[in-house]
Amino acid sequence: MNRKTSLLLSSFTFLLVFSAFSQDAEVEEREYPNREDNAKCFVCHGQQSFYETSQESGETIIRNMYPCLIIDSVKFYEANHWSFGCLDCHSFDYTDYPHLRESKFEYIPTCLDCHEGDEAVAQYNFERIAEEYEKSHHTQLTDTKYSCWSCHDPHGFRMEVRNEEVISHVVATDNAMCLKCHSGTTATDLLLGTGLEPLVATHEWLPETVNHFRHVRCLECHADLVDDVLVAHDILPADQAVNTCAECHSSDSRLLHSLYKYQIQEGRIKKGVLGSMITSDIYVIGANRNIFLNWISALIFGLVTLVIIAHALIRIIKK
Ligand code: HEC
Ligand code: HEC
Ligand code: HEC
Ligand code: HEC
Ligand code: HEC
Ligand code: HEC
Ligand code: HEC
Known about the structure:
By secondary structure, the protein is mainly alpha-helical.
């Protein structure tokens, strides 16, 4: 392992540990009203294997849980819906095992069933998001299974933009939602740049493709931006996607109206002011032009020239 990779790895580990600690602090104060009840489901759905007892002979065997039915309990309790019980969304019939066949046809509520006109989450503007979603390319597909839950994992979604300060983490989580279907890769693959070959091939016009995928969301190029929602939900057909560099690499970068919008609203980043340069996480060539810095660099350049001239003069005199 060379020095650069080990440095990268150790800083990554540090970040992981650090974020685990900071989350612990926040999570500790919570009381989980449904933890006990949920444990009755997690005993099977929380791990790779479970015990099944024959109702006839009383014999107990160990069985493997289908991988797609395993739910990460840690993620579940860190999600926006951390206080939920499984039965808030699923039929009460699931408390029996073997599960009734009929329960597979249960109706699972959608976001709007609970959040339409919900004052507590008014700032998200669910109604507008739903309108945008209705227009999106995906919704026009004939596959009726497509819903809000297709991207928002019911057992673990957490809104990142509003909760996470490190932009690259927001990008990784949000892109993983798309990559789940568009290349079968996870957030870890994205970090390591593996498994992305097919997508990189269709995006070969974009130099440093994987690097771009780490710094911008798919949404930045593929969704139609609107002012009244923070995260655009109208995914356009591919032929309408952003394909010019200047959309982002310019002083009125598209990113100021999408990826960085929340941080700008919160005053964490000031548009075009020195502050934006300090957050190295969001430095984009061309977008961060700043007159003050231009003057500083001119000054530094002037000073360096002076030093060189002085140095040359001294050498000539000393000869
Ligand atoms: C004894 C182990 C066990 C327990 C306890 C258990 N499940 Fe299951 N569950 C399974 C197995 C095995 C399957 C897959 C076979 C099937 O669908 O019956 C399954 C399937 C499911 C499915 C359907 C997946 C699909 O799309 O077909 C849901 C939803 C579900 N369980 C929810 C629950 C909930 C909620 C609880 C707690 C109230 C729970 N389960 C408790 C073992 C269990
Ligand atoms: C906020 C609502 C919600 C809660 C809470 C919830 N589920 Fe689900 N669950 C869903 C939805 C929606 C689906 C269908 C996902 C899809 O179609 O992609 C689902 C699907 C499943 C499946 C099938 C596998 C899958 O992921 O598609 C299982 C198993 C399951 N849930 C178990 C549980 C258990 C166990 C709990 C409690 C720890 C739980 N659910 C809590 C909404 C919920
Ligand atoms: C079964 C009803 C129900 C469904 C379905 C549902 N929610 Fe919620 N949601 C709630 C409740 C209740 C809360 C309040 C959180 C609590 O009690 O901890 C909440 C909280 C949230 C929060 C956190 C708000 C905050 O500021 O802390 C977000 C974000 C959210 N939901 C988004 C969604 C999205 C997106 C969907 C669909 C993908 C969805 N919800 C589906 C009932 C629901
Ligand atoms: C194509 C994938 C996709 C679908 C489908 C989708 N969303 Fe989202 N949604 C996202 C992404 C990505 C984010 C950004 C999450 C973050 O980083 O905070 C998001 C964020 C949100 C937010 C938070 C916005 C904010 O202001 O912080 C809400 C609310 C939301 N979605 C609701 C919905 C509802 C309601 C539906 C269905 C009508 C839906 N979403 C369908 C991908 C999707
Ligand atoms: C549940 C699976 C699923 C998720 C999640 C998903 N997509 Fe898709 N997407 C599809 C399917 C299926 C198609 C249709 C494939 C086709 O038309 O070739 C599609 C089509 C598209 C297209 C149009 C392709 C074209 O040829 O015009 C774009 C662009 C796109 N998705 C972007 C995204 C983005 C960005 C996200 C994340 C915010 C996302 N998708 C999340 C399944 C998904
Ligand atoms: C910098 C802008 C940009 C970014 C970032 C971007 N795309 Fe694209 N994408 C495009 C453009 C432009 C096209 C159309 C290319 C063409 O038609 O030659 C495209 C094509 C596509 C297509 C249709 C072609 C295919 O591969 O089937 C899909 C699906 C897609 N992108 C998904 C994604 C996903 C998922 C991400 C995030 C990992 C993403 N894109 C990130 C600009 C972008
Ligand atoms: C959706 C916005 C967006 C578009 C469109 C876009 N870029 Fe970028 N680009 C970024 C961001 C964000 C970075 C990351 C800057 C960093 O390294 O921190 C970046 C980084 C780069 C880098 C690497 C700089 C480095 O230090 O590694 C190059 C080169 C680049 N872009 C060139 C291009 C070219 C050429 C195009 C057009 C074909 C383009 N970009 C289109 C947003 C974009």
